From TrEMBL:
This is 31-O-demethyl-FK506 methyltransferase FkbM. It comes from Rosistilla carotiformis. Pfam families: Methyltransf_21 (PF05050). One of its GO terms (molecular function) is methyltransferase activity. It comes from the Bacteria. It is an enzyme of class 2 (transferase). Its EC number is 2.1.1.-. The gene is fkbM.
């Protein structure tokens, strides 16, 4: 356990936690909600660093967190409970373009660095990775007819499919942060170009920023990174 923004923060892996805390310093810097009780949806919440950052800035915010990794989810729920945070709903599921169950790939253990875990085998099935069956939820059914102030999608290679599933509800969303995960082998199913076209068509201004931090991926993925040539691009999207 450590402290983050005055909150108690439980985590599964020290390096992953430190990386997420560094990223929080500038996220979401491009967006200010219109009211203190804004609705945030955090897809790929991990242990809840972004959730805690939002609660520090906007204590009355309502936040829905999705996290399929059972070990990260346990830490996420604990961080909500030990800090006695109102208005936060945690869902142990992966957002997907379909309901049901699916295979989840990656580093799955109580003390694992789970950055990079994904439903997308092309992104997360690597030497030494394990699998687990997890629940999947369609984001459209959670959004319903509600207005969403901010949507975060950091779901390791499934961004294009999920945005396609909520096409009809994109007009209800005011700002989106998408971290697009690409490799040459997965461009046909998930690409910055296709996602930018989706978001432009829905009326968003999109600013693409290459994510090249030295801590963007765990050290144990260095060999895979050299072979697969992955890229991570941040799309900052607003109206």
């Amino acid at each position: 356990m450590t402290r983050f923004r005055g909150y108690r923060l439980h985590y599964t892996d020290l390096q992953a936690m430190e990386s997420m805390c560094r990223e929080a310093d500038e996220f979401p810097a491009f967006f200010t909600p219109p009211s203190d009780d804004a609705l945030f949806i955090d897809c790929g919440a991990n242990i809840g660093v972004m959730m805690l950052e939002c609660k520090r800035r906007w204590p009355q915010a309502k936040i829905v967190c999705f996290e399929p990794d059972p070990f990260a989810f346990a830490a996420l729920q604990r961080n909500v409970d030990v800090n006695d945070l109102p208005g936060v709903r945690c869902i142990e599921a992966a957002v997907s373009d379909r309901e049901g169950q699916a295979t989840f790939y990656g580093a799955l253990a109580a003390t694992a660095d789970g950055r990079g875990n994904s439903l997308n085998a092309g992104w997360a099935q690597r030497p030494g990775s394990t699998t687990q069956t997890v629940a999947c939820r369609q984001l459209s059914k959670v959004i319903g007819d509600r207005q969403v102030d901010f949507l975060k999608l950091d779901i390791e290679g499934s961004e294009e499919a999920v945005l396609g599933e909520i096409t009809d509800q994109l007009p209800q969303i005011q700002a989106i942060y998408v971290e697009v995960h690409e490799t040459p082998a997965t461009l046909a199913e998930n690409s910055v170009e296709a996602i930018t076209q989706q978001l432009n068509a829905a009326g968003f201004t999109v600013d693409a920023q290459q994510r090249a931090y030295e801590f963007a991926l765990p050290p144990h993925l260095a060999q895979w990174q050299a072979a697969a040539r992955p890229t991570q691009t941040q799309l900052l999207c607003w109206r």
